[in-house]
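Re: the 142-residue chain
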Amino acid sequence: DTKLMDCILLRHLLDLAQAKLAVASGLPKNNKTFRITQSFLWREALASSQTTPERVQAAKKLLNAPGLSLDAATKKFASSDSGMKIMVQRPSVIHDMGDSAAHPKHVSRDAFKKIISQHTVAGNHNGLHAILDLVDPVTQST
């Protein structure tokens, strides 16, 4: 479904951008920090600010900390009010829509079986069915 994939990809784009801003602002403690952790660190750094304007101000303060040298793309982005508002939005509509698309509350067993049958690596079918039986066991009568 294209609409669902669009939601997932927009969330991914948001994570990539938040991770880039986290790195630019010096938030990760080491270079081996994963992108998802970097994105989380960015959101956590802004958590004490309650309103969007406060979070935008806090984000700009992080990016303008003494000793930082931002690349041209990050400097340009930091001057985008609309981009910064999306980057600091809480709750994040884009984040929530992506999560809902990627992790729906309920998927029927039949839907999973159909997806497994369409999976391009036939060698994975038995393993995927085993996973499905673990997650959604078939009730067997005795």
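DSSP finds eight helices and no strands in the chain.
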